[in-house]
Write a structure and sequence with these properties.
This protein has about 120 residues and is mainly α. The chain has a domain of about 70 residues. The chain contains 4 helices and no strands. The protein starts with 8 loop residues before the first helix and ends in a 26-residue tail after the last helix. Keywords: Membrane, Transmembrane, Transmembrane helix.
């Protein structure tokens, strides 16, 4: 029996987001953040505003990654499919053929013999 597929992106995205275990994801993220901030505070202390500079740099890097993965990469996939055609976006190359294992050696090489 075939499964029916939602027609638009919003219901499909909503179904995928509802399938996640958000409580577990949030717990792991909170533990990871607490341990990393504790390690930074232990190693570098609170002097010289190191933690605030580190958090600012992390926020900037996180925003750049979010823009890249949530905006640029989906646009590239969409552009490849719509501008160059769906065949180009999902083109698969044929696997390389290996020579069969029981064949003879090349003609130019001979085994070394000792007399």
């Amino acid at each position: 029996m075939a499964r029916s597929r939602p027609a638009t992106l919003a219901p499909r995205l909503r179904q995928r987001l509802l399938a996640y275990r958000w409580r577990r994801v949030g717990g792991l993220a909170a533990i990871s953040l607490a341990l990393s901030l504790g390690l930074v505070a232990y190693l570098f202390g609170w002097s010289d505003h190191f933690v605030s500079r580190l958090l600012t740099a992390f926020l900037v890097g996180f925003c750049l990654l979010a823009v890249t993965f949530l905006g640029a990469l989906p646009f590239i996939s969409w552009a490849a499919a719509h501008w160059f055609g769906p065949g180009w976006a999902s083109a698969e190359s044929a696997p390389a053929r290996r020579p069969a294992a029981g064949r003879s050696r090349p003609a130019g090489r001979r085994p070394i013999t000792t007399t």
